[in-house]
Structure formats: C-alpha cells, structure tokens
Design goal:
Blueprint (H helix, E strand, L loop, with lengths): L4 E6 L6 H12 L2 E3 L2 H8 L7 H18 L4 E6 L3 H13 L3 E6 L4 H14 L9 H10 L5 H5 L13 H8 L13
C-alpha cells in the first residue's frame, strides 16, 4: 500500500487556502476536509455554540482513518496555532502518513478585499467577517517557523498532556485519544 500524505493548509481567512486545497485535491486524488463546507449547511454559523471544534474532531478522525488506509488527505482548517500543527503532524506520523504544511500568506488589504468579495458573490457559502475580526485574528495567528515548515520541528506535547494524542483529544473533543504515546 502506498504511503498517504497529509497536507495541512495553514493561513488566515482570505489567504487562498481552500482554492489551493481544491487544486491539490484534484492533483493528488486526495480527500479534502474543509470545515466551513460542513458548518454552513449543518448549522448556518461558523462557530454554532462550540460545534465547530466537535465537527473538526470528527473530520480529523476521518482524515486519520483515511490516511491510515493509504488515502492522502488535505486538512483545510487554517490551523492558526503551532500546537495544533504539531499535534496533527504527530498524529499523521502515528498512522504512517507523511505530513507537509502549505502556508499561504496574505497582506491585510488583500485579505479584506477577498473576504468582502467572497461574501458579496457567494453569501450562502461563507460568513461575514469584519475588519476588526480580521485584525484580532491576525494578532492571534502563530506564523509557522522555517523549522516547522520543513518538518524538522518535533516538540513534545505541552503540559499537562502526556501526549499529542491527549492534547488533540482535548482540543477537538470528538477526536479520540487513541494514537499512542508522544515518544513514537
């Protein structure tokens, strides 16, 4: 069986992640998982009282099962936090998949223009986002380092978590903590 590749799409809203993820989906014949494509039809809201984390956990569980069976996957979540990315790299390695990060950057003016255009053209497929929200999100975004992008960064899970599997199960409550210890 061919080894699967997991591609982590990293970037802020309006960076072009989903457009790039769709290109990769076609090129690789991969399974693409984009939470907004699920949140809107299911809940009509991007957060829906904490349901996004639950949905993302189930999508990740699906991605890990697919990768374990040799199907490449694209995780189109944005992944703003370094710990999220570290946990996913570790989890995909635990199921025997290669993992790479695609980081897309966008300047604030282009980002705002894209967000407004997207909402104007396809309001049923997206959410309204204010300039203030974008500025706040930009402040909280943890840009990937060169070591992280190269795959060289393999930190231990942060306390109090014994493993990245435990950390991920706490972050995404519907993702089971069933992927072994973090020393693998």
């Amino acid at each position: 069986m061919e080894r699967a590749t997991a591609i982590l799409m990293v970037g802020l809203p309006g960076a072009g992640k989903t457009i790039r993820a769709r290109q990769l989906e076609q090129q690789l014949g991969a399974l693409r998982l984009t939470p907004d494509e699920w949140m809107i039809p299911l809940f009509g809201d991007s957060e829906a009282a904490g349901k996004r984390d639950v949905l993302e956990g189930r999508l990740l569980w699906t991605a890990l099962r697919a990768a374990e069976r040799g199907l490449s996957v694209i995780v189109d979540f944005g992944l703003w936090g370094r710990d999220e990315r570290s946990a996913l790299r570790w989890l995909f390695a635990a199921v025997g998949a290669e993992c790479r990060t695609e980081y897309l950057t966008v300047d604030p003016d282009t980002q705002l223009a894209r967000i407004h255009e997207r909402f104007k053209c396809t309001p049923e497929q997206t959410f309204a986002i204010s300039a203030e929200e974008l500025a706040q999100w930009r402040e909280s975004f943890q840009e990937p380092t060169a070591d992280e992008l190269s795959g060289a960064l393999r930190p231990a899970a942060p306390p109090p978590h014994e493993s990245w599997s435990a950390w991920a199960a706490a972050r995404w409550p519907s993702l089971p903590d069933s992927y072994g210890d973090s020393s693998a």
